[in-house]
Design brief:
Structural class: mainly alpha
Strand content: under 5%
Largest sheet: 2 strands, antiparallel
Distance between the termini: 11 Å
Order of helices and strands: HEHHHHE
Shape: globular
Strand order of the largest sheet: 1-2
Number of domains: 1
Amino acid sequence: MQRRDLRFAKLSEVQEDLKNLASRNYTKTAQWDLSQVAEHLADWMTFPIDGFPKSPWILGILIGVMRVTQGKSLYKKFVRDQRMPTGQPTIPTTVYPASDSSARSVERLLKAIDRLSAHRGPIHPSPLFGQLSYDELVALQLAHCAHHLSFLVPS
């Protein structure tokens, strides 16, 4: 089964897709289930508001070099395509074990989306993309959500 060709124009569309996936059966076309995807996305949706966790020093150096050399072009590509490379490393604390129940995880992500939608305060700079405006941040979050949720296909 192929992953979905998924694109989101606004955060409320992500919420609709999440509720649809949570209320129906779905097939995962990659390793993560809905709970894992929702927890991961909720983490990354709140980091720009609360602050990003510290990366291991070697990863921090690598990300810093990438931010300076490729950050802007990667940002543009991710937002345009609403896809990110698969199998790339991420902060280990944002990778969760599989779960039989996704309700709590989906609710956490729905609340994170509401929080980001209402946020008008400062935004912490992304380790990879640097300082983003609110609109740029939302565009990146939409792309990140489309990427991960595309691997879950409703039945």
